[in-house]
Amino acid sequence: MKKWVSGLLIAGVLLLGACGNQAKTEDTKETTNAAKEETIRIASVGPDAEIWRFIAKSDAAKEAGIKLEVQDITGGAITNNAVADGDADANAFQSIGYLESFNAESPVKLVPVATTYIEPMGVYSNKFKSIEEITDGANVALADNPSNTARGLRVLESAGLIKLKADFDDGIGTPDDVVENPKNLQFTLIDDLTGPRVLPDVDLVLISNTIAFEGGLNVLKDSIYREEADASTRKSINIIAVKEDRANEEALQKLGELYHDPKVQEFVTEQFDGTKVEVDEPVSEVWE
After folding, report:
1. Tell me, what's the pLDDT at 146?
2. Where in the sequence is the domain holding 187, given as residue range(s)?
3. Do 193 and 126 share a domain, yes or no?
4. Domain with 279 in it: what CATH number?
């Protein structure tokens, strides 16, 4: 009897010791994972910030050892300056064309580390139901910032409404670069944020999708024409941008993988009704 009790006590001690060692092992793993976790401050704007808040809570971010701090900033130039000044490590809100325009004026250069999506720019009208219905002298509102002005003109050209000069600059082109205008379209430059609000006051308005979506418009359903995602719309592809001298940092390179995680893409499709079309192309294929 004494031997049986003694053996039972010894077994219990060994079992407790094993559990203790297992708990220590789990604690060590958690400590190691926490030590490996790297914090990245990512600046974004409006709806894009929603995506990155979702990514910050995702299993993919945890598995990658990335802790995301999302900074929701209003204004494209401010968001780029946050990265240029070191107040943020990366940003995700802009197209290649917008970034090129920023770099042309900034002493600190930013570069993309990954592609994310393209949002078709649309032509909207309360007056016309199709491109074919547009009448002579129609007033067209374009966003008054370099990349979106040029982008809007390219959309009008692809719709067959105008022709641009051969050396048209997709970063800074203006209505002065129109060489053929058979319908005598009249151009008005507006604050791009006001696109949905001016729709009743003009014949046509070119609106980028983020602004259209926030204004209750869906480019796939409400526009009378929209740009297509092809080689001619390279500058309309959105990207994740960082300072040029940090582009090769492993943690920053992981941001693209996180964005293209299948669960993240499910969220993006559902949240934005399919209007953010995924683009998962190597940066080397789209950045010159």
Report:
1. 80
2. 122-227
3. yes
4. 3.40.190.10
Starting at the edge strand that comes first in sequence, how are the strands of the sheet with 38-44 ordered? 66-72, 38-44, 90-95, 237-243, 110-118, 277-278
The answer to the question of residue 149 being in a domain is yes
| pLDDT band for position 11 (cuts 50, 70, 90) | very low
DSSP string, 114-158: EEEEE---EEE-SS-SSGGGPPTT-EEEEESSHHHHHHHHHHHHH
Q: CB of 154 within 8 A of CB of 232? A: yes
| Domain count within the chain | 2
**Inside any domain, residue 22:** no
What's the confidence (pLDDT) of residue 22?
A: 52
> Which tokens in the block code for residue 138?
């129609």
Average pLDDT score over residue span 207-213: 89
Read off the pTM: 0.72
- 184 and 241, same domain (yes or no): no
